[in-house]
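for the writeup, i need someone to sanity check this before i put it in the appendix. the sequnce is what the collaborator sent (i think, or maybe the updated version? ugh). structure was predicted straight from it, no edits. if anything looks off just tell me and ill rerun, i have time this weekend
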Amino acid sequence: MTDELRRQALDALTRARSRTAALTSCVDEPELIAQHSPLMSPLVWDLAHIGNQEEQWLLRTVGGREPLRPEIDSIYDAFEHPRAKRPTLPLLPPAEARVYASDVRGRVLDILERTPLEGGPLVDAGFAFGMIAQHEQQHDETMLITHQLRKGPAALAAPEPPVHDRGPLPREVLVPGGAFTMGTSTEPWALDNERPAHRRIVPAFHIDTVPVTCGEYQAFIEDGGYRERLWWADEGWNQIRQHDIGAPLFWRRQGGVWLRRRFGVVEEVPPEEPVLHVSWYEADAYARWAGRRLPTEAEWEKAARHDPRTGTDHRYPWGDEDPTPSHANLGQRHLRPAAAGSYPHGASPLGVRQLIGDVWEWTSSDFLPYPGFAAFPYREYSEVFFGSEHKVLRGGSFAVDTVACRGTFRNWDLPVRRQIFAGFRTARDAEGNAGPEVHGSSDSHRGSDGSMA
């Protein structure tokens, strides 16, 4: 079993580094050093930060080795320096950053070979190695966002997503009410905010079979959705008025046709694709306009993991098997979402599709800890973000690797964010249900959005 865990950790680390190299070798040095948006770091900062985190956790903490570059720890501390200020720091130049990250990785592979993968929560089942692989993949997704934001010709290429014969699909699926197990206590590389597993009682609800498409979202625009105050939360209305927002990010109308810019290519907006680059406020406004609402986080996870026929809760909609290319659009295999209704092999037992991959999906819930939460191995991963400022996203996107995507995985961001690869699906109450979600315990109570307050 230990040899298999080492193989899994090695595979995850190697896959992440290969992707990092691809994202940083496809542009020249000025592009790596430049800040393409104040929302994002220069690509070269991400590159060295990846190496620095790996050094701190795997070389120093797990391996007990002497620091290689302790003088740069402060420079690559994400909490010490906001993204907009990072270009002013004395960053390692690209060549030096590559050498540093490679040097760290070589030593880490030696530590992986020698470390018993047991004896404490940081090393049990190779957790620390899995954590670092997830961290690198999360920064790879961040760098892919930077590539989307950068101006100029395309620097990345990938094949088109597969075309699936979706056949006729229902608009929505009824998810029966009742209890299910939310979160996990057994997934070996799950991060602290996914833990612990706990019972939730979720009343019956309907959820969209597929994510909301660009064509459906265009109908909202054409119906004056961005001009009608009725659909918008106060903060969202202020945001679209202040910044003159009238469509998803990267969209523009030309000659009666909606166009978008995608990784340096301008193309007509595909109506059958899940809509992308919308904020939580835009998703919430669309749902109101459609006479529906965003699903709560618990509703989303129940739809994605619970099989009502057997009463079991799985790792993924399709079961416990790791994702394959037939299940979901993950891992930057393609540079766009697949058409809504794709990946029938990845459907849930109730027939809900594309819950994993393609687009992150906004939920109505604030990012809050589960009952019994304990920060591990550091507060700054999750705990400092808990509260009403951040909304939960679920499911992963085409930019997410399989190591950082599962049915319990939780993402979060500010509700104004539009550069991320986020879309949504909608839900509605079933007839006569008592509300979106409650805990199983008798002293639970619900916040105004249905999530636990």
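The radius of gyration is 22 Å. The longest helix spans residues 2-25.
thx in advance!!
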